[in-house]
Amino acid sequence: MNLNKEFAVELVEVVRHSLKKDFEEIHRRLDSIESRLERVEGQLAEVSEKVRYVVETTPSIIRANQSTLWNMEKTPVAFCATDVPLLTCLGTE
Q: Coiled-coil ranges per the record (predicted)?
């Protein structure tokens, strides 16, 4: 009976040691995941800021491009010589 008790105590110690190692490994992996998650959150914040900027500026860029195209359509360029810079020919230089 005493032998069974000693065996049980040893078995508990082995299991406890094994569980402690498993717990430490899980904790280490969780720390690593948390670190990667923080990096991803930072990258997501950067991308979000860039998307916000694009969304905010795109309408004005489109309007500016439309205006430029409209002005170019109305500007006679047939008389421009080939050796004259295009901006000079368009009268924008």
A: 23-50
Whether 21 shows a pLDDT value over 90: the answer reads: yes
Domain extent listing, the chain: 2-90
Query: Using CA atoms, how far apart are residues 85 and 47, in angstroms rounded to an integer?
Result: 39
**Alpha carbon distance 16, 53 (integer Å):** 55
**Long-range contacts of residues 16-21, Cβ cutoff 8 Å, at least 24 apart:** none
Dihedral over Cα of 56, 57, 58, 60: its sign: positive
d(CA 28, CA 22): 10
DSSP letter for 77, please.
Answer: -
Higher-confidence position of 8 and 88: 8
The terminus-to-terminus CA distance of the chain in angstroms comes to 104
Strand locations in the chain (E): none
